[in-house]
Design goal:
- The complex is a heterodimer of chains A (303) and B (416).
- Chain A is α/β, with parallel strands linked by helices and 303 residues long.
- Chain A has two domains: 226 residues, 3-Layer(aba) Sandwich (Rossmann fold), CATH 3.40.50.970; 29 residues.
- Chain A is built from nine helices and seven strands, in the order ααββαβααβαβαβαβα.
- Chain A has a seven-stranded mixed sheet with strand order 2-1-3-4-6-5-7, with helices on both faces.
- In chain A, helix 2 packs across helix 7 and helix 3 runs parallel beside helix 5.
- The two termini of chain A are 35 Å apart.
- Chain B has 416 residues and is of the alpha/beta class.
- Chain B has two domains: 218 residues, Rossmann fold, CATH 3.40.50; 115 residues, Rossmann fold (3-Layer(aba) Sandwich).
- Chain B is built from 14 helices and 18 strands.
- Chain B has a seven-stranded mixed sheet, sandwiched between helices. In chain B, strands 13-15-14-17-18 form a five-stranded mixed sheet, sandwiched between helices.
- In chain B, strand 9, helix 8 and strand 10 form a beta-alpha-beta unit.
- In chain B, helix 8 crosses helix 9.
- The radius of gyration of chain B is 22 Å and the shape is globular.
- The chains are: A alpha/beta (303), B alpha/beta (416).
- The interface between A and B is large, with 44 and 45 residues.
């Protein structure tokens, strides 16, 4: 999308809702340096959300939207669950169709956009919960990886079905007592990051959202790699504080505890050698670009 | 809102996204052709081919962007032939999905992204895919699925049976039923045009009877393959094309799914009603392209047979047999189940004393649909109907009439 397209006709300016005016005047579409640090300083692409107070998913959503490399050319595919309550209030196109078919929808979408816009990089990003990704949608998740579909899959792993009231999911820890697991879950947490690696994903990361810098970096890596190589996968721990008996302010601690040494969410990242080389090169280019921009700014200030 | 349509002279107006006569984006031997010319004026040559090959020939001229395939009898051949078209460069993309639920979701994704999409399925595949169909309609995606109908029952059957069309009736899709190879060819091409009209913009199921149509050879009149339909214009959609080429706006303050209040229920209800209204609005385009939604022969007679698909072909032969015995019978062929031609059927059958509805399914659902729109519906005999792949010889249909008239039958009925 050309940035011009979101601009408001002068004659209609007063009629547009204030949040749209802000989006045109103060959002970060087209800004190469956009990232999580813009939060609080510019208009966010998420207007508001109806998630629970203190829900780590809400901050994950904000980091992701702030860190997309090109939101003006990004389309999200979601699924049923807590995430689907947020998408209607997000300023990028997003599709919600059914529960579990998100990677199949994204496959068709990415191919259609490739046909229709052969010269523009249109990023497709799937964002769904663990029930949608690992249980009901596992076939479609994995088959899209087998086929080498060029988009990023993000799983908000809260280790249960949150939106339906805390039932057991495949990503729940073994032994956890939940609805539909009345004597505790009987089998291990599904190792989806490893499955992703073996199923054709070129870049895989598993982490919590306690460190925004890391979330931003991982997201950018995943999207850049998906453009060039093929499927990428990010699993983010976004604990459901409501269903694990935590207070609103305890989400961050829960994430920090789980990523400490020996925890379930110690940061891990898998990538192919080709991707490692590619990302190294991208980082170097990025560094050079920023250095040149800084220099130019300095020169301009001098002049 | 409505496009100008001259039903009388069957002229459809309006293609602004491309120049008619321009070379196709996919195949430079093809040129974008005004559908009016392609359907009404282009010279045709007769070809003798299977229904599966007819599907291929229709798609060759349909200018689709993408197709997704999955094997299930009896549509596998057609789906593979479309793959050959892809290999020859007739479309943008083609691949095999993992199962029909995946396939229909992939079709949805491509249609959300602004592509003209075609797929095929049958029987258990239709049922596996089912959750997608009301979603397609509710999302206003003008995808075309060709349903080559077969049994869906257990024990396993791959034989012809039309029960799945019954299940599709309330999905919000347009449902057309082809009787012959020529119907199939015409319905596929014309189906795209009707389904993509901005005030219709709904998915369409072009149904045909598996094996009877897909695996038998029939003569079909084909226009030259240098002609191809103009491409779909996603920016005429009544809903936003999900390609991030228009300004993203907050769709709603809170998702309606979270609200338990009257406005939320009302929004959901009116959306569903609008889908139904769009089906009704398709009538004017459908009539302009395929003629009246029903075709009548000798409806001044006291006994009428009414049906859809190959049941009509069997009925036609039964009527000839009954004629030999001096029993005059009229015929009504239904071409579209959605929109359902209520008024047309009521009018055509107003003077009939006895109405027979031959069907290839255990439920006899078409008879129910017909009974629902007729006064004095005790005139309707819901049959004969066969199921599970049984054939319905014309003699069986003729016997049903004779039985109702208290006449001696040929004994075919007992043979099944």
């Amino acid at each position: 999308m050309s940035i011009e397209k979101i601009k408001i006709s002068e004659a209609l300016h007063d009629l547009m809702p204030p949040e749209y005016q802000d989006m045109v005047e103060d959002a970060t579409y087209g800004n190469q340096d956009r990232g999580w640090k813009d939060i609080g300083e510019s208009k966010e692409l998420i207007e508001q959300h109806s998630l629970c107070a203190g829900c780590p998913e809400s901050i994950a959503f904000r980091y992701i939207l702030a860190s997309l490399p090109a939101p003006e050319n990004t389309v999200f595919v979601g699924s049923t669950g807590c995430t689907s309550l947020v998408f209607p209030m997000v300023a990028v196109h997003n599709i919600h169709s059914l529960f579990g078919n998100q990677n199949a929808v994204a496959s068709g979408l990415k191919r259609a956009l490739k046909i229709r816009f052969p010269d523009v990089e249109k990023d497709v990003v799937v964002l769904a919960g663990d029930g949608a990704t690992v249980d009901i949608g596992l076939d479609y998740t994995m088959q899209s990886w087998f086929r080498g579909e060029k988009f990023t899959t993000i799983c908000f792993d809260n280790e249960l079905y949150a939106n339906t009231g805390g039932q057991e999911s495949g990503l729940m820890q073994k032994g956890f007592v939940a609805k539909m697991a009345p004597v505790g879950k009987l089998f291990d947490k599904v190792r989806l990051p490893e499955i992703a690696r073996e199923s054709g994903c070129h870049y895989v990361a598993c982490l919590t959202v306690s460190k925004p810098n890391r979330v931003e970096k991982v997201l950018k890596n995943a999207i850049l790699v998906a453009r060039e190589f093929g499927p990428t996968y990010i699993q983010l721990y976004t604990p459901c504080i409501l269903e694990i008996g935590k207070q609103s302010m305890e989400g961050l601690d829960e994430m920090k505890d789980s990523e400490a040494i020996g925890g379930r969410f110690v940061f891990k990242e898998y990538m192919t050698d080709e991707v490692k080389e590619f990302l190294k090169q991208k980082d170097a280019e990025e560094k050079d670009r920023k250095k040149a921009a800084k220099l130019a700014a300095k020169e301009a200030a001098k002049a | 809102m409505n496009k100008p349509v001259d039903v009388q002279n069957r002229v459809l107006k309006g293609y602004s996204n491309v120049q008619i006569g321009e070379k196709s984006k996919y195949k430079d031997t093809q040129t974008y052709t005004d559908p009016n010319f392609l359907f009404n004026e282009a010279e045709v040559t007769p070809a003798f081919m299977t229904g599966s090959e007819v599907i291929k020939e229709a798609i060759r001229r349909a200018n689709i962007d993408l197709s997704v395939a999955y094997p299930i009898t009896p549509q596998s051949e057609a789906a593979a032939l479309i793959g050959e078209l892809y290999a020859e460069g007739y479309m943008g993309d083609y691949f095999r999905g993992e199962n029909e639920f995946g396939v229909m979701s992939q079709c949805a994704g491509a249609a959300f992204g602004g592509a003209r999409v075609f797929t095929t399925t049958a029987g258990p595949g239709t049922l596996r895919a089912f959750e997608n169909f009301p979603m397609w309609a509710g999302s206003r995606l003008p995808i075309q699925v060709c349903v080559t109908m077969r049994g869906v029952n257990s024990p396993l059957s791959i034989q012809p049976d039309t029960l799945e069309m019954f299940f599709l009736l309330e999905t919000g899709m347009l449902i057309w039923h082809a009787e012959t190879a020529q119907d199939l060819f015409d319905f596929i091409l014309k189906g795209f045009i009707v389904a993509e009209m901005p005030d219709v913009h709904l998915p369409i199921a072009v149904c045909c009877d598996g094996f009877f149509v897909t695996h038998t050879k029939d003569t079909v009149a084909l226009p030259d393959e240098k002609y191809v339909l103009p491409p779909y214009d996603p920016y005429k959609s009544p809903v936003v094309c999900m390609d991030m080429e228009s300004a993203p706006v907050r769709m709603m303050r809170d998702p309606f799914v979270m609200k338990s209040n009257y406005i939320s229920y009302m929004t959901q209800a009116s959306w569903q009603l609008e889908v139904r209204a769009a089906i009704e609005r398709s009538r004017k385009y459908t009539k302009a392209l395929i003629g009246d939604l029903i075709e009548c022969e000798n409806i001044d007679r006291e006994i009428i047979m009414i049906g859809s698909g190959t049941a009509v072909s069997q009925a036609r032969e039964a009527i000839r047999l009954l004629g030999l015995d001096g029993i005059p019978v009229g015929l009504v062929k239904i071409k579209t189940l959605r929109p359902f031609p209520h008024e047309e059927i009521a009018e055509a059958l107003k003077d009939a004393k006895k109405i027979f509805v031959p069907e290839f399914n255990v439920a006899g659902y078409l008879a129910r649909e017909i009974k629902a729109v007729l006064p004095n519906n005790d005139r309707v005999v819901a049959g004969p109907h066969v199921a599970g792949g049984m054939t319905m010889p014309s003699e069986v249909i003729a016997d049903e009439v004779k039985k109702a008239l208290g006449m001696k039958t040929s004994g075919m009925t007992a043979r099944g």
